[in-house]
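Here comes an entry:

___
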Amino acid sequence: MPQSHFLAFQLSPEEIDEFREAFMMFDKDGNGTISTKELGIAMRSLGQNPTEQEILEMITQVDIDGNGQIEFPEFCVMMKRMMKETDSEMIREAFRVFDKDGIIPSNLS
């Protein structure tokens, strides 16, 4: 797939390579798609325990062509979303750790 297809996702070449490597690990049968079964196996191997419904919802959110499976471009969308959610969670956690009294420095003046 041409690199230009990934411009919409704002992915760096390094991210594309990392996502492709992960995609190939998740695509156990090597058919170029990740099924609900393969996604469930992959999620459990990462320490997650999603329900069948959660797996279906994950696929539905990114299944652009509606075939019930995830192709590589769709996988990239899913991974980018997960990265953004993780970044937001990390920022919130940092605030919880460092902001013990609920006061930010600008409130002190």
User: Anything to note?
Assistant: The two ends are 55 Å apart (CA to CA). The longest helix spans residues 72-98.
